[in-house]
Amino acid sequence: MGVVTLIQAVRLAIALAAALALAGQAQAQLRVVAATTDLAAIAAAVGGDLVNVETIVPAAVDPEAFEPRPGDLEKIRSAGLLVRVGLGYDYWLDKLVRQAGDKRLMRGGDAYVDGSTGIPLLEVSGQNVINEGGHAHGVANPHYWLDSENAKTVSASIADGLARVLPAEHARISANREHFVADLDRALARWTAQLAPVAGVKLVAYHNSWPYFARRFRLDVIDFIEPKPGVAPSPAQLARLIAAGKKATVRAVVHEPYEPEDAARFVAQKLGVPVVLLATSVGSVPEAKDYFALFDHNVAILAKALGVPSQ
């Protein structure tokens, strides 16, 4: 092979390698990093095969008491889109984002999504984020994903974020979200019908996780076993709660998977009602494999505990 022919061959090989690299980049999925499994599930539904979604807080771990690990910073640095709960729930994320130093992932950046934007919030306090006993408290109750209607707003925010970083895929992203919302509407009608017979029922909960869920399904959580998030109740507080529960004819004690059980079981025993373990997030119990399964599980197990005939 002559020198000219060899040079041409090398140039052709380089051009071919570059073309293959570009093709690989075009086919590569956008790396989405979500603070929690719930936001990850919604992001995966909206992004479809355009995205690869990772979660920072593991399933069945209390995000309010979560401590980031060394590898979490690397997740942030490699993110093409960051999705957070907001409202102080994932306050620890701010430090990671500052350390990553990528302006795209900071508030107002093209690759930043706060899922709480546009949500009709409950228990709005107007205070700054504080941290008590490992639990963060912000401007409102942050458990908004437990009203499935709010997932429509969250999915719209995620779709907007994805379209900012993947503008050529706007149509596919919009179609994915529309499919997700249609499925959600059908499921919500089913869940609402399942819990309709127990509308107005009185419940006690261990932690204040359930105001959005209770509002959506017309349940009444009259009090909480924790006097403050992360603080164990005293015997006097339990006595007052039991007296109030008897007066209100409480029908069940709702409990989260990662909270201590002794106090909840004691209260339930004194009231003569069941303890109902509900999933606070996707993956927090094995049955809650995705966002729809989260509600399938919670609605079914609560309806059964309250004596609603299976449908």
Which helices and strands occur, and which strands form pairs?
Layout: H1 3-27, E1 30-34, H2 37-47, E2 51-55, H3 70-77, E3 81-84, H4 93-100, E4 112-114, E5 130-132, E6 135-137, H5 150-165, H6 170-195, E7 202-205, H7 211-217, E8 220-224, H8 235-248, E9 252-255, H9 262-271, E10 275-277, H10 291-305
Parallel strand pairs: 1-2, 1-3, 3-4, 7-8, 7-9, 9-10
Antiparallel strand pairs: 5-6
Helix pairs in contact: 2-5, 2-6, 3-4, 5-6, 6-10, 8-9
How many angstroms does the end-to-end distance come to?
A: 78 Å
CATH superfamily of the largest domain: Nitrogenase molybdenum iron protein domain
Shape: globular
> What is the makeup of the main sheet?
4 strands, parallel
> How many domains in all?
2
Mean pLDDT: 89
Q: Roughly how much helix do the residues carry, as a percent range?
A: 40-55%
Widest sheet: strand order? 2-1-3-4
Number of strands: 10
String of helices and strands: HEHEHEHEEEHHEHEHEHEH
Question: In the CATH classification, which architecture of the largest domain applies?
Answer: 3-Layer(aba) Sandwich
Weakly predicted, low-confidence segments: 13-26, 128-135
Backbone structural class: alpha/beta
Total number of helical segments?
A: 10
CATH class of the largest domain: Alpha Beta
- Over the alpha carbons, how many angstroms does the gyration radius reach? 23 Å
How much of the sequence lies in strands comes to: 5-15%
Write down the CATH topology of the largest domain: Rossmann fold
Please provide a written account of the structure.
The protein is of the alpha/beta class and 311 residues long. The chain folds into two domains: 25-185, Nitrogenase molybdenum iron protein domain (Rossmann fold); 190-305, Rossmann fold. The protein has ten helices and ten strands. Helix 2 crosses helix 5 (150-165), helix 3 crosses helix 4 and helix 6 (170-195) runs parallel beside helix 10 (291-305). The N and C termini lie far apart (78 Å).
